[in-house]
Design a protein that fits this description.
Largest sheet: 2 strands, antiparallel
Shape: globular
Oligomer: single chain
Structural class: mainly alpha
Length: about 575
């Protein structure tokens, strides 16, 4: 793994600070739309600029943070001053531009993909490769990858905001009105379909280490399944317009059978596979090896061994064939502009508040776990202790936990994305990733380089079961957890997704598309607020229909073109 992944390797030639403004094609560093996109290096730099747009300065615009806070299985948490986390968890808007960084960064990424799609198609790379076939493969991968990323950004916008302005060319006009919900998802589906048809037919094990972390044909197929399920579920259960088809821009559509065919292809030919032990996907399974001594008895007793996060030829671990698409993280420094946005702040913010333990480090205590999940989860399922970290348990490394440090304390934190640390050779307690990658700054706020997984192969299997109405994929996931096969039902599928994918930023979108969001927050939860017993109940408002507010700055800049989402 590189020490700096996609770290502003290239600042795109085309920026939009809001989608209504004129596109700025200022000549930066002597490059322009006319002179750039001519060499493979140009394209690689431009693609890096696209991935860079995934990162957001405001933590509430981080997709994983926003989705986890709104889910029914995580609470706001934090300390008395962390009001914004509690407001988001309670479906209140902390500020008029809470999600503006998400909006603007998505449109920055979209503008960059538009330039790559148009300019790469015109370029001739034949002199840079040994054979014409290799030049064509490079061009197709670049265009297909840009199409996928444009779909990724529009899908993110659609999930959170609903219908949004569609800007699909370099010279798109300003003051573009919001498209309808269906038009937005038709663009997403069409881009994914074309990406699948464009990108090389190359299995994951044959890819180079440099390609790990990039989108490919199989990732696009997996996302088409996710988009299909979200759109058809939302339209049926939230919008009251029942459908089983995903629209395309040309007026056509994709059926469940069509999408199942894409997932069949992904399952049979991609080369991705389940990691034999679910728990080995997460960094806590590596900490005993990296520390050179047993610092997490539970992991040692279970014989866990981290598969790493560098694909089939890992620097660390035994090879990760399950992670398909992820947000890569590195380190930062306070002297840099936005010096902390390239570290995994989900791990920092959801870490144990004011407790520096070994191997679990200190964090801000957001997103505490609803105890209902722990209490209703079968102890025989190893994913229970593989996902949830109980406090005050010596075997779990939390025996020295000091309670009553924050709000919404339930005695449980997430174990998948959490600060990990252990003693270094000198005996000082230092972040695991800082030691792995030899980073000099050991600040606890800057030490989180754990990938955030957007898509893994287990989800492909679960989506296949849900779309096909068959149990094979679901039972393959259950078998990996040592659980017996069961017959397919939607209720069984819902439980399997909850247990397999908890805290991975998917639960909120699942309960929305299933139409379960109106009843998901009915019960009260016993919590401790800075040492005081209390009860908590989130106040979801059905009139919002699962959407967040359009940033008020964008509404004002549109001069009446945008209408705010209902309920906000």
């Amino acid at each position: 793994m590189k020490k700096i992944i996609y770290f502003i390797a290239f600042v795109s030639l085309v920026f939009v600070t809001s989608c209504e403004k004129e596109l700025d094609t200022t000549n930066l560093y002597g490059k322009s739309l006319e002179s750039y996109y001519k060499t493979p290096t140009d394209i690689e730099e431009a693609i890096a600029g696209v991935y860079n747009a995934i990162y957001t300065p405001n933590v509430h615009s981080n997709e994983s943070m926003a989705a986890n806070l709104m889910s029914d299985m995580m609470l706001g948490g934090g300390g008395p001053d962390d009001k914004s986390a509690k407001w988001v968890d309670n479906f209140e808007d902390p500020a008029e531009d809470t999600y503006r960084d998400m909006w603007t960064q998505c449109y920055n990424g979209i503008a960059r993909t538009n330039a790559i799609i148009e300019k790469t198609a015109e370029a001739d790379f034949s002199t840079f490769f040994a054979t014409p076939e290799l030049a064509i493969e490079f061009k197709n991968q670049a265009i297909g990858e840009a199409l996928f990323m444009r779909a990724f950004f529009y899908f993110r916008l659609g999930k959170f905001f609903g219908g949004v302005p569609l800007i699909t060319t370099i010279d798109s006009p300003k003051d573009v009105a919001r498209a309808s919900y269906s038009e937005t998802f038709a663009q997403v589906a069409s881009d994914l379909k074309l990406a699948i048809e464009t990108m090389p037919d190359k299995s994951f094990p044959s890819m180079s280490t440099a390609e790990y972390g990039h989108a490919n044909k199989w990732v696009a197929q997996a996302y088409l399944g996710r988009v299909y399920l979200f759109y058809t579920g939302y339209m049926t259960n939230m919008a009251g317009q029942a459908t089983s088809d995903l629209p395309l821009v040309d007026g056509g559509s994709l059926s469940a059978s069509d999408v199942k065919g894409y997932l069949d292809d992904c399952i049979s030919r991609s080369g991705y596979a389940l990691t034999p032990d679910f728990r080995n996907l997460w960094p806590y399974s590596y900490v005993n090896q990296s520390a050179g001594s047993t610092v997490l008895p539970w992991a040692a007793n279970e014989g866990l061994s981290w598969v790493g996060q560098d694909g089939t030829s890992p620097t660390f671990g035994t090879g990760n064939y399950e992670t398909m698409f992820m947000q890569r993280f590195s380190f930062g420094d306070w002297g840099w502009s936005n010096g902390n946005i390239y570290t995994n702040r989900l791990a920092l913010f959801t870490g144990i508040r004011d407790n520096s333990l070994v191997p679990f480090g200190q964090g801000w205590g957001w997103c505490t776990i609803n105890p209902k999940l722990w209490n209703t989860w079968d102890d025989a399922d190893p994913r229970k202790q593989g996902s949830i970290l109980p406090m005050g348990v010596a075997d779990q490394g939390t025996g020295a936990y000091s309670a009553d440090k924050g709000d919404h304390e339930t005695g449980f934190f997430n174990k998948k994305y959490i600060a990990i640390q252990h003693p270094d050779p000198s005996g000082a307690t230092v972040g695991m990733f800082v030691q792995l990658y030899g980073w000099g700054n050991t600040d606890m706020q800057l030490m989180h380089a754990q990938d955030f997984i957007f898509m893994r192969f287990a989800d492909v299997l679960l989506m296949h079961s849900e779309i096909s109405g068959t149990a094979d994929g679901m039972n393959a996931v259950r078998a990996r957890a040592g659980l017996p096969a069961i017959g397919y039902s939607l209720d069984a599928l819902k439980q399997e997704r909850l247990h397999e994918l908890s805290f991975e930023g998917l639960r909120w979108f699942d309960i929305v598309r299933w139409g379960d969001v109106d009843t998901a927050f009915n019960g009260t939860i016993s919590v401790r607020n800075s040492g005081v017993d209390a009860t908590y109940k989130a106040n979801y408002r059905s009139e919002t229909k699962g959407l967040v507010p359009i940033p008020e700055t964008e509404v004002r800049l549109s001069n009446g073109v945008y209408e705010q989402n209902p309920g906000w």
